[in-house]
Design a protein that fits this description.
Strand 13 and strand 14 form a beta hairpin. By secondary structure, the protein is an alpha+beta fold. The chain is globular, with a radius of gyration of 33 Å. It has 17 helices and 20 strands. It is 50% helix and 23% strand.
Length: 609
């Protein structure tokens, strides 16, 4: 009876016109997707070679013959000199030649050009025109420098508290309250000392009602104002986020590609700079906290700051304008050829500068440069220096320039720091690690060997156990690898690391499970006496739910790993997520698209696979 029912059921399935047939649009979609990802993956197979990029500064011109002469003097052989936009790319056969060339070009060209370390793809140039480039390699594969930065969050609280002290004192002056003294106790605590009536008058004002981020508690001598824990958390989160954004901008300005900037713990930031072996310039810019402020200069001013010649300049205590309003800064030269930086302000800053300059024509305005340096105790402290004192000749708008800078390189660095923003909290480099390019090459070779060995082992198993269908599974696994590499190239910010290669190997092994489940279901159906065509249809249909459930649960775990982890964990999670998606597509639809035209209409029974 069971056999009869099975035969009737098999006949019904067989009679369906869509048995083992995919729509034409599905075939077209699969072909288009695989072709696109293959084009993205091919440049990775070609690899890349070490190179340096040379960008001429304003007013300078560099020709290929000059570069060749510099390299010939040092005995350095260049593979190729190519022009890409406004950058000359010089390629070399070894990293040693690349590093020697960078040092030689830096010394020879000086301030006339910016020399950066790069890697140039050896794939045909037309790949780049369609946006296909090699997959980006992480620090452990490329070699480079890793920096660990400590973020001084106490400086954020201190700045916030100073602003609150200034606000309270301003409110006391406006309300003409004379019996209250304001003292700053710690970086997040303010003490009000005075009569009860005066303090009550201050705290009951309209402005004081808006101090929701401060906790106010009366005591026997006045009132204690403390920054709330919620506000502390908000300030920490904001400071870390802004610092990370600004550091990324600075690294981008330096021309360092494939860099990684990530938060580590409560008050540390980890920076990875693949392909960089001379970190001096990066450290000087990454670790600097620079800003400009503009003050009114007065002989009787209470604030005294030294200028670049060591002379004392007296200023009013409150700045006219701070660096947060600067939206652009460009270095250049004035009419006399002296270094200068052109400043552009946002709308709010432009209004402030316009009002001040209009009301103070003939008065002097000082430009103060502030950066954080380490004191003998190893703590970060602000260092202020007046770099320019000028007389206001006319009303200034949102664009003006500052002079008095020592050198062109100083103007370039100042413009870069201002253009990428002032760090919200000062930072200190507490750890530096260098990974040599040789170790990176060894890691790449080890990773590729593991992937090739694993793939070969699975190929032998599949062909031995499943014969003809085993070859189909191998094609599906190959498509799976191509898809993963193509996705890595297309995914913004994705970098292949050694743990990422481990993820590739793991997902290739997991992808086999998809085919094993399907093929075993097909075998079970064939043993029951169904035809090959019906068994194929049954195998794919019945295994889909199991495959989907297994991949979804693993995908959830991988997403959690990516969200919580950082660095190597995220690299592993990225390839795992992409591998799960590609294994579903290749294991189910790509293999079926191959099997259907060949065996999908085969009505023979008791066929072995």
């Amino acid at each position: 009876m069971r056999k009869n029912n099975m035969a009737i059921s098999s006949a019904k399935i067989k009679d369906r016109g869509n048995l083992n047939r995919l729509s034409k649009w599905k075939y077209a979609f699969l072909l288009l997707m695989l072709a696109t990802l293959l084009l993205q993956a091919i440049p990775t197979l070609y690899g890349d070679v070490p190179a340096v990029g040379i960008r001429a500064q304003a007013g300078s011109q560099i020709v290929a013959d000059d570069i060749k002469n510099i390299l010939d003097i040092k005995g350095i052989v260049a593979l190729d000199i190519d022009q890409q936009d406004d950058v000359k790319i010089i390629s070399f056969d070894t990293i040693e030649a690349q590093q020697r060339a960078k040092q030689a070009l830096d010394r020879a060209l000086g301030d006339g050009a910016e020399v950066t370390v790069q890697y140039q793809s050896t794939a045909p140039k037309w790949f780049k025109t369609i946006g296909a480039e090699p997959v980006k390699l992480g620090l452990d594969l490329r070699g480079g420098v890793q920096l660990l930065l400590f973020v001084d969050l106490d400086g954020v609280f201190n700045k916030h508290t100073d602003a609150m002290v200034s606000e309270i004192r301003k409110l006391l002056r406006e309300d003409r309250v004379r019996d209250v003294k304001v003292r700053k106790l710690t970086d997040a605590q303010i003490k009000l000392v005075g009569t009860d009536s005066a303090i009550q008058k201050l705290l009951s004002s309209e402005a004081a009602r808006q101090w929701s981020n401060w906790q106010i508690r009366a005591d026997e001598s006045g009132a204690l104002i403390t920054l709330t824990e919620d506000e502390r958390l908000i300030l920490v989160r904001s400071a870390m986020s802004q610092n990370i954004t600004i550091l990324r901008d600075r690294i981008s300005e330096l021309g360092i590609a494939e860099a990684s900037v990530q938060r580590q713990g409560r008050d540390h930031i980890r920076i990875e700079l693949p392909g960089l072996y001379d970190p001096k310039q990066a450290k000087s810019v990454i670790g600097a906290t620079a800003s400009l402020s503009f003050y009114e200069a007065r002989e009787e001013g209470p604030l005294s700051i030294l200028d670049q010649q060591g002379r004392v300049v007296n200023l009013l205590r409150q700045p006219v304008l701070s660096g947060e309003h600067i939206v652009d800064a460009r270095s250049g030269a004035d009419e006399m050829g002296r270094p200068q930086v052109s400043i552009k302000l946002d709308a709010s800053g432009g209004d402030k500068m316009s009002r001040f300059s209009r009301n103070n024509i003939g008065q002097q305005m000082a430009t103060v440069y502030t950066e954080y340096v380490l004191n003998p105790d190893g703590k970060l402290i602000p260092k202020d220096e007046v770099i320019n004192v000028a007389t206001i000749q006319s009303t200034l708008g949102n664009s003006f320039r500052i002079t008095g800078i020592d050198s062109s390189s100083g103007a370039n660095e100042l413009a870069l720091l201002l253009r990428s923003g002032a760090l919200t909290a000062p930072v200190q480099i507490v750890e530096e690690r260098a990974i040599g390019p040789t170790l990176g090459e060894q890691n790449i070779q080890a990773g590729i060997s593991a992937l090739a060995l694993g793939f070969a082992g699975m190929a032998v198993f599949l062909i031995t156990w499943y014969r003809r269908f085993g070859w189909v599974a191998i094609v599906g696994l190959s498509a799976n690898l191509v898809m993963q590499v193509g996705f890595l190239v297309l995914l913004p910010g994705a970098v292949l690391t050694l743990p990422g290669i481990a993820g590739l190997v793991l997902t290739v092994g997991m992808a086999v499970d998809t085919n094993v489940l399907i093929f075993e279901r097909i075998r079970d159906r064939l043993r029951e006496g169904a035809s090959l065509a019906v068994s194929i249809d049954f195998g794919y249909r019945s295994a889909f739910v199991t495959i989907f459930d297994a991949n979804i649960t693993t995908l959830i775990s991988a997403l959690c790993l990516y969200g919580i982890g950082s660095g190597p964990l995220q690299g592993f999670a990225t390839t795992l997520i992409l591998g799960l998606i590609s294994s579903m597509v290749c294991g189910i639809w790509v293999t079926r698209a191959l099997i259907n035209p060949i065996w999908g209409r085969d009505t023979r029974r008791m066929v072995k696979i």
